[in-house]
Design goal:
Length: 167
Amino acid sequence: MIYAWKKGSRIKVNPQESGEELERIRDKYGKVETEVVIDEARSEDSPIHKHFVWDDQAASELYRKDQARHLINAVRVVTDEGEVSPVPVFVNVREESGNYYQNVNLVVQEPDLWKQVLNEVQRKLMSYEDRLSALVSMEQDKERVKGTKRVLKSLSQARQEVESLSA
């Protein structure tokens, strides 16, 4: 099998060696779990070793950034009825200078921010379409293929609707 990184990945280690290493891990343990991948990558001889930050101070800072993203994404407002709103308080905004979070109330008032958020939604929908298309191309069960193709059609329609809003 030939391996490559998905489009937009910024991974510096060799994709072929990495894919083979992950398959080796799956063969050895029966599945691929993040903890096992990290343990196997600890050896400097591992083809995926250089992907990880082994300096504990730098790694802890990266981990705290991940925790901050998780915290920001989890914040919701409680409605007057005492219900937790499903709408996030902050949404991720992508700009050429980098990503940041902005209050959703400000995003809906600023057309440029709104468009950037819609573009991100469109990218995510396309990613889901790609994942499901890949599964459909390998699936043998006709009923699952049929059902998944219906979902793909809905995703495609949703993505097109989002695209028309952000145009």
